[in-house]
Amino acid sequence: MAAERGARRLLGTSSFWLCCLLLLGRRAPGAAAARSGSPPQSPGSGVRTFTPFYFLVEPVDTLSSRGSSVILNCSAYSEPSPKIEWKKDGTFLNLVSDDRRQLLPDGSLFITNVVHAKHNKPDEGYYQCVATVENLGTIVSRTAKLTVASLPRFASQPEPSSVYAGNSAVLNCEVNADLVPFVRWEQNRQPLLLDDRVIKLPSGTLVISNVTERDGGLYRCVVESGGPPKYSDEAELKVLPDPEVTSNLVFLKQPSSLVRVIGQSAVLPCVALGLPTPTIRWMKNEEALDTESSERLVLLAGGSLEISDVTEDDAGTYFCIADNGNETIEAQAELTVQAQPEFLKQPTNIYAHESMDIIFECEVTGKPAPTVKWVKNGDMVIPSDYFKIVKEHNLQVLGLVKSDEGFYQCIAENDVGNAQAGAQLIILEHDVAIPTLPPTSLTSATTDHLAPATTGPLPSAPRDVVASLVSTRFIKLTWRTPASDPHGDNLTYSVFYTKEGIARERVENTSHPGEMQVTIQNLMPATVYIFRVMAQNKHGSGESSAPLRVETQPEVQLPGPAPNIRAYATSPTSITVTWETPLSGNGEIQNYKLYYMEKGTDKEQDVDVSSHSHTINGLKKYTEYSFRVVAYNKHGPGVSTQDVAVRTLSDVPSAAPQNLSLEVRNSKSIMIHWQPPPPATQNGQITGYKIRYRKASRKSDVTETLVTGTQLSQLIEGLDRGTEYNFRVAALTINGTGPATDWLSAETFESDLDETRVPDVPSSLHVRPLVTSIVVSWTPPENQNIVVRGYAIGYGIGSPHAQTIKVDYKQRYYTIENLDPSSHYVITLKAFNNVGEGIPLYESAVTRPHTVPDPTPMMPPVGVQASILSHDTIRITWADNSLPKHQKITDSRYYTVRWKTNIPANTKYKNANATTLSYLVTGLKANTLYEFSVMVTKGRRSSTWSMTAHGTTFELVPTSPPKDVTVVSKEGKPRTIIVNWQPPSEANGKITGYIIYYSTDVNAEIHDWVIEPVVGNRLTHQIQELTLDTPYYFKIQARNSKGMGPMSEAVQFRTPKASGSAGKGSRLPDLGSDYKPPMSGSNSPHGSPTSPLDSNMLLVIIVSVGVITIVVVVIIAVFCTRRTTSHQKKKRAACKSVNGSHKYKGNSKDVKPPDLWIHHERLELKPIDKSPDPNPIMTDTPIPRNSQDITPVDNSMDSNIHQRRNSYRGHESEDSMSTLAGRRGMRPKMMMPFDSQPPQPVISAHPIHSLDNPHHHFHSSSLASPARSHLYHPGSPWPIGTSMSLSDRANSTESIRNTPSTDTMPASSSQTCCTDHQDPEGATSSSYLASSQEEDSGQSLPTAHVRPSHPLKSFAVPAIPPPGPPTYDPTLPSTPLLSQQALNHHLHSVKTASIGTLGRSRPPMPVVVPSAPDVQETTRMLEDSESSYEPDELTKEMAHLEGLMKDLNAITTA
């Protein structure tokens, strides 16, 4: 009370928490109930305090007698004082109208005149004290047992006996255990005084040691248990004088197994009789007990052992050994120590709010292990969905309600006693914060948000509460932030839920602030639950959301457990199990599966059964088995039954006793020793042993002796002197006798030799050393009158005391084995008997050296093969040439398999042994190359490692998601983002593709996300047309040949705002007249971005090449102005041939001009490389890839055109080779590039014959992309030779797109006439071949004049396009290269192709587009292809241009 008054004074000084600590620590000595407390809290705090309420005194077990009075003590403390009531056997006692039982002021129960009869025992039973405080709660005490001594009955009474003086006497008087305290003895009708020589054992037996004549007389025992005393029969004890002759030792009282509780005393009786008078000594677990120096171990009269204040260490097997010098006998007993329940951890007081989950912890110990039950306010807590026993002894209360307040007690009970400890639960209002002192036992789901709240605005209700995932056992809830706090980064949430129709509500909290989802676990299938969500901020809890009703999914209807399962043994090897149909079969039961297992093993077997019973045969005899049954329906296995255990019936032992040995004691007795049969062969409880013996000299009668119990030795007496006897022993069970041991012989002594002293030294000792052994031989001592029971051989290196071996007295030699070669051993030999060991005889010897040659190595295995079985398993097989042809292993050889992978390089080998020619290596990594080798070992011989075999495990689906997922915005394109990632760390195979999922809702179902597939060799991807200023979530999933891997975690990215960026459809800023678009780019939504640096470098290179090209062109132009008159004549001849007035008659076979393009023929056969940055306009246009793809001009021309086209596409045919000379004759003198911007197509303008001339050339050409070519409508009004401006050309191109004729375009080559009109740049006299093979992604058919070739080996130099190129729509329809409709137009259309250098525009060159010629014209055109130019002039021009080309190649290469 002083502590409480001190606490109140401290409260006056406002030291609130210090008072809590003081009162929480105040506990009365020995009290077990909860009694932690705190003073009344300060006004306005709103926290109620724990009330001290505990037992000061609890009732204890009591023994009473009939007619006596009994007090069961009980006292409890509380403020206010508690009301005390009593329960007997679980029922409250009505003490108001009871005249024999009354309640004392302190709460104790007083019972007068205890009633106890044979059929009326109203007072005996279990009593419990119940303390109650109104409006607070109830606690119960431990249970106390009141035992009333029964009516006296003697189980055994004293019998007359006689004893020699100096020996011990035992007089039995056995009564019920509860009557032992009321037993006393009388001698000659007078009370017998007990002392150190005369004692009464706990069973009531009287023991008198060192009997004298005064101890003779009549003895009887008296039982006084409340009624008239009960006397036993009288028995006379006669004391005889010492006969001075020996007599055999026998036990008058043997120890019996005993069970005691820690702290009690234990008495193990042991009284032996014999002459000479025996002495008693005790051993425990083969260790001698020192009863003289120990304070707790006392040797009582007669030799009984008393152990006071028993501890757990005293448990064990005790041996009582009686020895009188002539013989020794022993008996044993087991002492078992038990312990009452004791609390290692008691429940503690708890503060909590409604809907929370709490756990009362309770840890107990005891022996046997105690059982635990929980009581709330005096009533038993029945486990249910909301009250659960967890972790063996703890009580978990789920979803607290106000009525759960009160006192909870943990009651532990075992066979020895019981104990209780309790704690108080206080449920606070939700607006009252839970104090942080003392620590509470809240579960992890309810330990958040317990900090004191401050004043301020509270959050509104969370919005859009939905069940995003509903399963049979769990539900996932998601919601949005409250309207009052749209961001909600600092909000935490509590989810309250309950079963529909149940008032008890539970709560689950989010794990961290800002989280807006919770998964509710451990729900019931097909059950309706009501959910609501509440947000909390630093000021407290806000409004609750509207209730959400969700029903869990139904579970598969499986059968319940089969009821009434029973098992019984039908024979020593069979057990029958029966059961009934499950009550909840959930459909037709198809069959049952019976599982059974031997106790002590972990191997369970099963058998299918179609009926309701089954007999298991072939079981082990007298062995315990456990059984369980599982019913099956169409859905699968149901709920298993509980295990039932049963033991098979016993049988006769199936093996003989072990280790039979004979010891000749003297000339008339032999001692037999043995050990029980092996446990697995005993087949039941061994009840005794049968000993058979006979003389070995002749066929004599067999004598049998039975030994009962667990005795393992027997002295056979009355034998003849100097006679050999045969002995055998068999074990007994209740079923009969088992097999006997083999006959073992021993010979009695001729005379009783002297065994009062040790034997003499052996007469001789000889040793013969070998490599690893020494053979020792000897002769017995010369004095044959002293008993020799055996010989002890000691040996060791340098000392004979390292090892000792004992042999029989008949033995004369022994081989010491397992020695070291070349070692010096000292050997000693001693004869011994029961008195001790005699004088030793010494000898030494050196073992021989080891000269065995080292074994030769074995041949390594051959033909090692690795067979891949799965993604983690490879089978290794091999052959062994050292085995016979059939490869059968008949010796003890074994093989060692080792394996490793080279990634990483420092991987260590793993090894495994095998005894067959194959081994299954498991646990390997998927899609990994391993190397294997094998070694064989036989004895001490081993081979080297075999040749290596390799194997790569199969692929497996990726087991990890792509890593390092990042999302960045593309510079200058706010609506385009770039996703980057790295391959999965556990790809388990070659990644064949990725799938990018993105969505604006991270909680959306995965099938609602947008999917973007990506090829496996890409680690970046562009996504276009995203919404500005919007958060997106991205996940990536990898795929290999085995399937899809897991998804990565969602990565959030918010697109930029609209300000400062130009989205789709927005007007681009004015870049000025000097702006030049980049030479290459990508409009593909999945292309890789091109950095500004790369575009600038490309622009610089193109400009430089363009400048060099202009210089070369100027040089050529100057040269062309100085041409000879013959050149002018050639031009006029060409014009005449166009007008049909002149025709060059020269023979092309006389002089062949040098072919400048001969070095490029092989380049024309190479396929055109695709651009790394393809243009969608180019790739969308269908390009014909062979002659069948192009509509023929005429049936008669089909073969000719096909022949020419194939000759330039690299097809090695006879036609292509035969037309090579014709192609050379069709080439112009020189070719110059037109304006071109990769990947725009190129149109060459060539001087050819007029269409009026029936002898004209026909040229097949191809356009890379007609949709982007500078072509003009076939009906263009401009005449030949008329120049067009750049704007006109652009408008004309646009007009082509808008007319139907753009869909049908002639594929014939352009033709023009040389006129006197001169282009300012001299472009009308010649043409350039424009091709940019590296930058043009479109594929074009090679022609006679437009040749795709290497940029550094052609005249084609790409020029910078003119400013303001027309915009091309990629969605326009593609234009076929040839069309039958276009070939039917016989109009002289004019097409122009501009020639531009370094950004300057040139007037367009008129190009005549003829209609398709007929067959005759084509034939004449081919015949006239070699007569266009003068041979000598053309040879000079070609030679000069060839030199210029070499210079140009050198410049561009540099």
In a few lines, what is going on in this structure?
With 1454 residues, the protein is mainly beta. Helices cover 10% and strands 34% of the residues.
Explain what you see.
The chain is mainly β. It contains 14 helices and 89 strands. Strands 12, 15, 16, 19, 20 and 21 form a six-stranded mixed β-sheet that branches. A hairpin with a 6-residue loop joins β51 (591-598) and β52. α1 packs antiparallel against α2 and α4 runs antiparallel to α14. The chain is flat and about 165 Å long.
In the predicted model, the low-confidence regions spanning at least 5 consecutive residues are 1-44, 444-453, 1060-1092, 1129-1429
Report strand %. 25-35%
Report the C-alpha radius of gyration, rounded: 57 Å
Distance between the termini: 107 Å
Main pleated sheet: 6 strands, mixed
Name the helicity range. 10-25%
Number of helices: 14
Mean pLDDT: 74
User: Class by helix and strand content?
Assistant: mainly beta
**Shape, please?**
flat
Say how many strands there are: 89
